[in-house]
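Supplementary notes for students who missed Thursday's class. We covered one full example, reproduced here. Read the sequence, then the structure, then the short commentary at the end.
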Amino acid sequence: MRPCLRWSTILFLCLAGLEQLEAQQRHEPSANALRDTLVGIFLDFSAGWEPQSGTEADAIARGRKHFITDSTFSMVIDATYRGSFDQWAARTAISIPRTYRDYSEQRHHIAAARLLPLSNRAAALTIVYCVDFVKRDGSRGTANSGATLVFVRQADGWKIAQYHGSHGPEVLTKVRCPTG
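Structure (token representation):
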């Protein structure tokens, strides 16, 4: 009787594995839609640092609205921990006006985005992007950057719980970031 039990267990595991693969393939379009939604949130957040996108006050609100505000908030940028949501939010009142003072234009271009669904209510997104910029003195350049974000689904939509980003050095150049 033992060999039959083993074969039935193996058969069960194989069928379960096929069922999971089929379910994953059925959900592929929804994973792409989720990735696109989360990339859109990242781009809207990033637009807060694009002077051509609106006023400083609008940019500050736009920069903050996509984040959770409780103790699970975590932000690390360029190997610097940014503290609680309130501490980071206070810094946006300094960093956004500084950006608007130093740059006349910035545009974030996504080079790659990879999604890792963690559950029905959480997902991680890693983004590689390039920023085109024009400084107030007219000089142009680019900076390659990347970020990994952990999103959680709340009653009012997806929010960023953790943001871990790194910005490459600015390179003064007339060449623009690839956009395709």
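Commentary. The radius of gyration is 21 Å. The domain at 2-172 is CATH 3.10.450.50 (Nuclear Transport Factor 2; Chain: A,). If anything here is unclear, bring it to office hours.
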